[in-house]
Design a protein that fits this description.
Structural class: alpha/beta
Number of strands: 11
CATH architecture: Alpha-Beta Barrel
Number of domains: 1
Number of helices: 11
Strand content: 5-15%
């Protein structure tokens, strides 16, 4: 049994103190977020997380990608689709993942232990399009989703090749809402999966009662759901476990919707139930969603608790 994070971690941006750093920032050569990535990675490692993220420190889950995708425009924090969606103008998250991996390697004395690593995280095309407003070119969301999948495929392949992650996670929270055409959604994920030589995960939060059977048919290796923040999904998993017998489950057992430390007994009972349903070898423990909104001490405490329970049952 392994542990991971869904993605985000509280951002800590340090004020520049040295004249050199201030000059570099003025010249556009200082990366304000690099220290935040390092702090996030070390916190995850100190807490015992096996598969870490870079902390997703640079922005919200939509604009962090749409900022670099022609055909999409950000205005007042909202994303608009204004013309045909084309390939990204740059690799978006590769350098951050490479840096996170270096921090991890240094943490372990120069060599990352077997079973530990980083994962790339990409907001899925269905969620990005449904979070955006179409202003021009597209008459329906489905065509925009497919074009965006082809665009994001360049980022998926770059992560796989240059960051060498343990796996890549596609965030698709909209799939549980009933708003998404599932045939189009599966086609989009198939585009991202095509030729990929690392495992692919898909994170879907929300209540799964109506969507689980459709989601179980997606061509991914890992399905990641939330179980701590609602009392419905564990029953859905138990009832439909046969549908995901060939997949691993990212098991959200820490409630990311509250900024207080979870009750250890409740978390342990939830994990024990998951072990009964799918077996510990098929579980990857994580929080329900990202922890960006939590205070740093609470976020760390949640991850530490998760890993203490993981170690108890591994």
């Amino acid at each position: 049994m392994k542990s991971t994070v869904v993605g985000s971690y509280p951002v800590e941006l340090k004020e520049l103190s040295s004249s050199k750093d201030k000059l570099l920032k003025f010249l556009g050569a200082h990366d304000t977020y690099k220290d935040a990535i390092k702090s996030s990675v070390i916190a995850q490692l100190d807490a015992g997380v096996d598969i870490i993220s870079d902390g997703q420190v640079r922005g919200d889950m939509v604009s962090i990608f749409t900022e670099y995708i022609p055909g999409m425009r950000i205005e007042d924090g909202n994303t608009f689709i204004v013309s045909k969606i084309r390939n990204p103008t740059k690799e978006i998250s590769v350098k951050d993942l490479q840096y996170a991996k270096k921090v991890m390697s240094d943490y372990y004395g120069g060599k990352i232990p077997e079973g530990k690593g980083v994962k790339g995280i990409i907001t899925g095309p269905n969620t990005i399009v449904h979070s955006s407003r179409i202003q021009a070119f597209y008459k329906n969301k489905e065509d925009a989703i497919i074009d965006l999948a082809h665009s994001l495929k360049h980022e998926v392949d770059a992560i796989a090749k240059k960051a060498e992650p343990s796996y890549i996670q596609i965030d698709e929270p909209f799939l549980s809402t009933g708003m998404v055409d599932m045939k189009t959604a599966r086609e989009a994920i198939d585009i991202l999966r095509d030729g990929l030589d690392v495992p692919l995960a898909m994170h879907v939060c929300g209540i799964l009662s109506q969507a689980f059977k459709d989601i179980s048919r997606f061509n991914v290796d890992i399905l990641d759901f939330e179980f701590a923040g609602n009392n419905v999904n564990i029953g859905v998993l138990e009832k439909n476990a046969d549908l995901i017998a060939n997949k691993k489950i990212g098991f959200g057992c820490i409630d990311s919707s509250v900024n207080t430390l979870d009750d250890a007994k409740d978390v342990e009972e939830l994990v024990k139930k998951a072990i009964e349903i799918v077996g510990k070898d098929n579980l990857i423990l994580d929080p329900d969603c990202g922890l960006r909104r939590a205070p740093k001490d609470i976020a760390f405490g949640k991850l530490k608790l998760l890993n203490e329970i993981k170690d108890k049952y591994s």
